[in-house]
């Protein structure tokens, strides 16, 4: 689940749950041809009590 819904929406998952995708608005800066994004991903298994807040 994204931390800030204003920046990135909810992920959509492939039918077999092996791929997750999300679209978001990109930015363009006039002084550079490249923009780098960094994100942290936390994987968890939804078996038993894991990932209750996910």
TrEMBL record:
Keywords: Signal. It comes from the Eukaryota. Coiled coil: none annotated. Residues 1-54 form the ZP domain. PANTHER family: GH04558P. This is ZP domain-containing protein. It comes from Bracon brevicornis.
């Amino acid at each position: 689940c994204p931390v800030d819904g204003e920046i990135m929406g909810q992920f959509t998952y492939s039918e077999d749950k092996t791929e997750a995708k999300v679209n978001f608005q990109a930015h363009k800066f006039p002084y550079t041809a490249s923009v780098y994004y960094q994100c942290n991903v936390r994987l968890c298994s939804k078996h038993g009590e894991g990932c209750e807040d996910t």
